[in-house]
Design a protein that fits this description.
Elements (H helix, E strand, L loop, with lengths): L1 E2 L2 E2 H4 L6 H4 L5 H13 L9 H9 L7 H17 L29 H15 L15 E11 L5 H6 L6 E13 L3 E10 L5 E12 L7 E12 L4 E13 L2 E3 L3 E18 L2 E4 L7 E4 L14 E13 L2 E10 L4 E11 L1
Antiparallel strand pairs: 1-2, 3-4, 3-15, 4-5, 5-6, 6-7, 7-8, 8-10, 9-10, 10-13, 11-12, 13-14, 14-15
């Protein structure tokens, strides 16, 4: 088997390629598998420099260094989220917020508790870790795993009724990928999950580096994001966010970079519910349907706004990043702490 004048079987240590001769595997598939075997450094397998150059130049190289570096993060995320498909202690049952019996049928729904509950869920699974504000460059990429804890009023009546085992801290796991683009732009996506529940969030981000790379001037970044929450049969939630970040990168001995940042963030949460069946346990015990008020109501859009401040620090050593952020939501009077580990290149 030859390709572009190169004896592939000899280069890749395959004698005769009998599986190709029998038509079981295509030559391209075989070459790719041999390149993969060498790159993963399988036992008792060696590869000459000429063969390595061929795998890279022919486009059959199975992985790149950043793919290998990010794969453990994806595997870690999958392992941590692996659990039986059953109801969790933080799964929300909004029908429990229906107050029955009640003399006034229009007052059977606890809209106040519902509003506060939705705000805390939005804080737990919404946008965070906006910094640093510097650009990744047109070819840069940032892949990270994040673990966060968000405060919650677990002792409040609305949490006790809506969740089986409310907790004072809601743990969230995230995978974030950002790709650098020309002109200081970054396009990103986020996958988040609330531990102990079936609630997931998928988000998209657009970062713009307004000031970037000046020696004595901090970097200024502007991020806009939108997230949608999935996994709860009773509600539909969309979270839109916009924030400004000031940051600066400090190099130390040419070995590592310290990158602190401060962020002001504003988010807007929109929630709607489906009609939920319930039994009104009054004298008639009749079956009925209920729908919570739209949150926020058109006449009170400010209820959906939240204002937050955050400070964070990232340390980058040889393309490996470790960082953390503390965020304070003044609207909800709650805190969020997030840690990050990943690769950046």
């Amino acid at each position: 088997m030859r390709r572009k004048g190169v004896d592939i079987a000899a280069l890749l240590g395959h004698n005769g390629a009998p599986d190709v001769d029998r038509g079981q595997v295509s030559p391209t598939t075989l070459i790719r598998s041999r390149c993969l075997a060498v790159e993963l450094q399988m036992p008792k397998r060696s590869m000459s420099r000429k063969a390595a150059e061929f795998c890279h130049a022919s486009g059959l190289r199975a992985t790149t260094w950043w793919t290998r570096a990010s794969l453990p993060l994806l595997l870690l995320f999958a392992v941590l989220l692996a659990r039986p498909a059953s109801a969790g202690p933080l799964d929300l049952h909004l029908d429990r917020l229906i107050k029955a019996p009640s003399a006034d049928p229009t007052n059977r729904i606890d809209n106040t508790g519902y509003k506060l509950l939705m705000r805390e869920v939005s804080l737990a699974i919404g946008p965070r870790m906006s910094g640093p504000g510097q650009s990744l460059g047109a070819l840069g990429m940032d892949i990270s795993y994040e673990l966060g804890g968000s405060g919650a009023n677990a002792s409040a009546d609305y949490w006790k009724r809506a969740a089986d085992k409310p907790e004072s801290s809601i743990t969230t796991q995230m995978i974030r990928v950002r790709k650098g683009l020309p002109h200081g732009l970054q396009l990103g996506t986020v996958l988040s999950h609330i531990d102990g529940s079936d609630m997931w969030s998928i988000g998209a981000e657009l970062n713009i580096s307004l000031i970037d790379g000046f020696k004595n001037v901090p970097d200024l970044g502007w991020r806009n994001s939108v997230h949608t929450v999935l996994g709860n049969k009773d509600m539909s939630m969309v979270i839109a966010g916009s924030d400004l970040s000031l940051s600066k990168s400090f190099g130390i001995a040419g070995i590592l970079a310290l990158q602190p940042w401060a962020t002001y963030s504003m988010t807007f949460t929109y929630v709607s519910t489906h009609q939920m069946p319930y039994f009104a346990n009054d004298s008639t015990s009749h079956f009925d349907l209920a729908t919570f008020k739209q949150f926020p109501e058109t006449s009170a859009l400010s209820d959906g706004l939240a204002h937050r401040l955050a400070v964070g620090l990232r340390v980058v050593v040889a393309r490996v990043q470790i960082g953390g952020e503390f965020m304070r939501s003044f609207t909800d009077d709650l805190n969020v702490v997030t840690g990050r580990v990943g690769v950046v290149f």
